[in-house]
Amino acid sequence: MFAVYILKSEKFDRYYIGSTGNIKDRLRRHNEGREKYTKKYAPWELKYKKYFNTRSEAVRFENHIKEQKDRSYIENLILEEKAGL
């Protein structure tokens, strides 16, 4: 099982989109400063996750989100997950 996730740095008001086979470990790595891009924006909070059967499906959806280049698209995904849609 693979997941696409969205993290938010409340301190810096930034989002990060990624995919992984282990969300718990990945979030820990981001918050421990073990990831080059995200270390300067820690702490990170998990805001969204969506699971896929294959890595390729997850990466495809991750890229789709990133291609939107639209903060409101990300925030709508987060709101939809909170609402259970």
Walk me through the structure.
This protein has 85 residues and is α+β, with helices and mostly antiparallel strands. It has a single domain (2-83), classed as GIY-YIG endonuclease, CATH 3.40.1440. Helix content is 42%, strand content 27%. It has a three-stranded antiparallel sheet, sandwiched between helices. Strand 1 and strand 2 form a beta hairpin. The longest helix has 14 residues, at 55-68.
CATH architecture: 3-Layer(aba) Sandwich
Spatial separation of the terminal alpha carbons: 21 Å
Strand residue percentage: 25-35%
Largest sheet: 3 strands, antiparallel
Number of domains: 1
- The secondary structure category is alpha+beta
CATH superfamily: GIY-YIG endonuclease
Question: How many helices?
Answer: 3
CATH class: Alpha Beta
Q: Write out the strand line-up for the largest beta sheet, numbering strands in chain order.
A: 2-1-3
Instruction: Please write the string of helix (H) and strand (E) elements.
Output: EEHEHH
**Alpha carbon gyration radius:** 12 Å
Give a brief rundown of this model:
The chain is of the alpha+beta class and 85 residues long.
Descriptive tags:
85 residues; alpha+beta; GIY-YIG endonuclease; 3-stranded antiparallel beta sheet; 3 helices
